[in-house]
Amino acid sequence: MKTYFLALIFLGANALTYSQDAITYAHFRAPRLTGPSMVNTSLKTSVNAKFIKVLRKDYMPIRAKTLQKLVANYDISKASVFMPKQNSTYKVVMKEGKDASTTVYSYQGIILKSEQTFKNIRLPYNLSSKVIKEYPGWAIDQVECRILYEVNENPLITYKVKLKQGKDTKKLELSI
């Protein structure tokens, strides 16, 4: 009976310490942009310069570049859940309209992983021209972009495209 009791206490204590990641939600108002010259992708600090460098693509829409800059410049040490003496990771969720980013930061503020989604976004020219040539008579109706970034790996950029021709629809998934 003592063995069962001690095992139960051990399992109970172990379950309470299972997840040590802290979650914080960042509420911000993204600046309204009028043209590409307003996007400044330089960083306040070089901690996440690699994140911007890997994702900085000429075809990336302004909305995506703006959110990525906010993610890269976010200072986790100013969050209320930050514990400087604890080696933790922090999950930060940023949303602006239909755009969202879920990013995991190290206790040093380095971006370890980021997943970003952008709805109703412009399809890059090289992809849109390819789609139009392959599907003549079809119109691009909706586009969703998903970007997966992990430190020391190539990012995965995927576009889900909905085509429309009258009442018919087709769905495509394109990767860059």
Describe the structure.
A hairpin with a 5-residue loop joins strand 5 and strand 6. The protein is of the alpha+beta class and 176 residues long. The chain is built from four helices and seven strands; from the N terminus they run αβααβββαβββ. Strands 1-2-3-4-5-6-7 form a seven-stranded mixed sheet, covered by helices on one side. It has one domain (21-175). This is Nicotinate-nucleotide adenylyltransferase.
Percent in strands: 25-35%
Terminal CA distance: 60 Å
Overall form:
elongated
- Largest sheet composition: 7 strands, mixed
Order of helices and strands: HEHHEEEHEEE
Radius of gyration: 21 Å
Instruction: Count the beta strands.
Output: 7
Nearest-integer average pLDDT: 81
Biggest sheet: strand arrangement: 1-2-3-4-5-6-7
Number of domains: 1
Protein name: Nicotinate-nucleotide adenylyltransferase
